Structures are given as structure tokens and as C-alpha cells.
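Input chain follows. Return C-alpha cells only.
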Amino acid sequence: MTLDSEFRLGDWIVKPHTNSVVGPEGEAHVEPKAMQVLSFLAARPGQVATKQEILTDVWEGEAARAMKHYRDFLELWSDADPDLPEIAEARAYLASSS
């Protein structure tokens, strides 16, 4: 289950339907799979999601394609504002949305 409608995450307004985020510095495009992962995490505020749960839900078991997009998501994550989802540990992720 992922969020399909607009939601807030820290200072950002996340728009899954347009694959974009709007924050204090303007609007930015997000790759579709990265948006699906972001929405997946935001749909579970305060809950830890394992890498396997993300891969199963977002990529429905397509492991080879999943790993390329997963690396793209981690790159997006590393560039994120500190108020966006935090990495709870090396193999599990946590999002808190407002």
C-alpha cells in the first residue's frame, strides 16, 4: 500500500501524481520508483520497513530491476533534507509524515 494523494513530509509537500516534491527551495522532480518508495514509507509513519518489504511491495519481486532503482532511491535519500525520512539502520528504513 502506498499513498497516492499529496502529503506533507517535513518541510516538503510530496505530489505522487506528478512525481515531484515542493519545498522551501522550489519544486524538484523525483523518479517514479523513488516516489513509490517514498510513498510506501510515508504510508507507514513511525514504522520500520525492511529492504525486503520495500522490494516486495514496490517491485513485486523483480529483483534485478529493483536493485538499480533501489540504489537510485538511496542516492535521493542521501541528498535529502534532514527532516525527510531517516535511515533507522543500515537495512531498515523509517518515515514519519506530518
